[in-house]
Amino acid sequence: YFSCFFMQSPLQEKKGWSRAMTSEILRNEECNPNLLKKKGLELLDAGKTNEAVECFSKGLVYAPFDSLMRYWRGRKLIGREEYTQSASDLKLAALENPEDWECWYYLGVACYLSGMYEEAKVAHANSKTLMKKYGVNALPATTDWYWMICMKLGQPEEAAKALEDITPDTPTEDGDYLCRVLLYKGVLKPENFVEECEKNCKNPERPRIYHLMLTYGLANYLHYQGRDAEAIPLLKELAESPDNRALFAVKQSVQDLDALGVSYTVPAKA
């Protein structure tokens, strides 16, 4: 049955699952990887991430090369800060689905957060190529990560080159990433950057996330400009945020402050 798992991209397959009463069926077929996968996807839809990860883990015992379960377990392990294990799952998922930009994108994220920058660079390069090939409106997002990777590797010229094909008119579903890339490129200025970009937030359900993402972009930019005195307060605002602890911007800020040797306090209820 392994071959049937490699036909669709993770998101396509996820959307195709019905909402059947999988739990009842699983009581009789606990070793069936198809049912374990289906149950895991239903748990994700219900917001029960940890339970979904455990379900996928069990399913992978019976179908270790199932790329869909690898993808979703790997992606959700990022939120649990299990970055190396996440990268391991996502690398296998990407190799099983080499034309799926999301596998490469999240592999790049996991590798970046685990400090495997060269591997992250390859992953985001593949992601960008596939986005262009299939007309995916997410180029600013993968370009942002690629820029950060190059800056981490001490390659500012390559980082700048990566920004060349991004313009204010670049189609995107992530306006926060587009603003950040335009900041790195010099099109937008750091003065009042967050406030000005927030005025153009098109998704009313994401204002807080938008704010945090823009704030991290500004802090990161200021850091690479040698302006840590301005960057550190912004990083502390993010690291001490009582909400959205799974957001990449928050996790990156924590890592950046640790690297700078700057202390911060996470609220007790976070």
What features would you highlight for this structure?
about 270 residues; mainly alpha; globular; disordered N terminus
Describe the structure.
This protein has 270 residues and is an all-alpha fold. Helix content is 66%, strand content 0%. The chain contains 15 helices and no strands. Helix 8 packs antiparallel against helix 9 and helix 9 runs antiparallel to helix 10. The longest helix has 18 residues. The chain is globular, with a radius of gyration of 19 Å. The termini are far apart. The N terminus is likely disordered.
What does the secondary structure layout of this molecule look like, with pairings?
Layout: H1 10-16, H2 22-26, H3 33-45, H4 49-62, H5 67-79, H6 83-96, H7 101-113, H8 117-134, H9 139-152, H10 156-162, H11 175-185, H12 193-198, H13 207-224, H14 228-239, H15 248-260
Helix pairs in contact: 3-4, 4-5, 5-6, 5-7, 6-7, 7-8, 8-9, 9-10, 9-11, 11-13, 13-14, 13-15, 14-15
